[in-house]
Amino acid sequence: MSQTAELDALEARFTADIAAAADLKALDDIRVAALGKKGEVSLKMRALGGMSPEERQVMGPALNGLRDRLGAALDARKSALEDAALNAALASERVDVSLPARREPAGSLHPVSQVMEELAAIFADMGFAVAEGPDVEDDFHNFTALNFPAGHPARDMHDTFFMTPDEGGIAKLLRTHTSPVQIRTLMGSKPPVRIIAPGRVYRCDWDQTHTPMFHQVEGLVIDRETHMGHLKGCLIDFLSAFFETDEVEARLRPHHFPFTEPSAEMDVRYERVGDAVKVGSGDKWMEILGCGMVHPNVIRACGLDPEEYQGFAFGMGVDRLAMLKYGMPDLRPFFEPDARWLAHYGFSPLLQANLATGLS
Ligand code: PHE
User: Fold this and answer.
1) Can you state the percent helix, strand and coil of the chain, rounding each to 5?
2) 260 CA distance to ligand 1 centroid (A)?
3) What pLDDT is stored for residue 157 in this prediction?
4) Would you say the CB of residue 313 lies under 6 angstroms from ligand 1?
5) Could you tell me the residue range of the domain that residue 333 belongs to?
6) What is the pLDDT of residue 295?
7) How far is the CA of 65 from the centre of ligand 1 (A)?
8) Residue 3 belongs to what H/E stretch?
9) What is the mean pLDDT of residues 12-26?
10) What's the total number of domains in the chain?
11) Closest-CA residue to 111 (of 321, 318, 328, 322)
């Protein structure tokens, strides 16, 4: 066989081997046998040195061509094998996230989390964004900017948890309400403002209806012509969405807050029917929120002109709303790790509260 015929035979054999290689390991063995240090092609290239110039002129280019073609064939086969491996993995590891769960998760959503989700869904539908602030607040945001006069009883050690003072003698505190988020939001933005601020709040209190940590949702609307009628309409719409009935009956009772003027509290009519709570009938009223028109001093403290901007705010007790909607008689178990209570009052974490398919 002539030398070039030998090369053709070699190429035919390796090309067939490459095409037949079943996996990456087999393919690499072929690469070593052909192009490795002691591979057949490499050995032939090394022999070029001992050839006559005429022979070399023929065999040199022939061997180079062979090496390049085999290299390209090896690369092509390699990526084909890798693609096949990836496709096989994708096919076997496929997850259809739209399928229903095979098994309900063992945990459940706490009623407070559930109600927070419901509130966010309702107010998002009315065009409110969600704002947040820190649990550890300073006196300015929690009190001063909210128009609490110096020496106001709510600043007393009795209600407020104070932190250890820093070197300058300044003590941070655990926020006693979500109203400081009003200040943080207004100071950073230009009206119109329409936000809710859900979160934890802290007061030194403990009985059947009070826990030292509880939950509020603050609401704030500031614009040029917002008035008390908007406040009332917004809250009534909220209540019928939340209780999923048009039967809700609510009353606004005059009240006092330093940061609103006029101020009111809102009560909801309810009765107990067996274990359940029915809203809209009966002769009991539950206080669920405080509200009012934002005080001009608050607007001024946030660097805005109260002659130009006004609006309303409200703050509601999330735990109270949960008790009213889902019928828990006592607040304290909300914060005790009792698995039976959670199993009874908890919600499926797979069902998201939304207005389209129902809140709960
Ligand atoms: N911050 C008040 C509270 O803790 C509630 C409230 C919020 C009242 C906003 C009026 C306006 O009770």
Assistant:
1) 45, 20, 35
2) 8
3) 60
4) yes
5) 111-345
6) 98
7) 84
8) helix 3-20
9) 93
10) 2
11) 322
- pLDDT value at position 1? 66
- Residue 135's alpha-carbon distances to 179, 275, 314, in angstroms, are 11, 35, 19
- Binding-site members for Mg(2+) are 261
pLDDT for the residue 291: 98
Residues 87 and 187 in one domain: no
Tell me the pLDDT tens digit for each residue of 56-91: 999 999 999 999 999 999 999 999 999 999 999 998
Query: Concatenated DSSP letters for 296-328?
Result: HHHHHHTT--TTT-EEEEEEEEHHHHHHHHH--
Domain final residue, candidates 92, 126, 141: 92
Which tokens is 75 given? Answer: 């690369």
Which pTM does this prediction carry?
0.71
* DSSP codes of every residue in 92-118: HT---TTSPPSS--S--B-HHHHHHHH
The candidate with the shortest Cα–Cα distance to 268, out of 283, 244, 286, 246, is 286
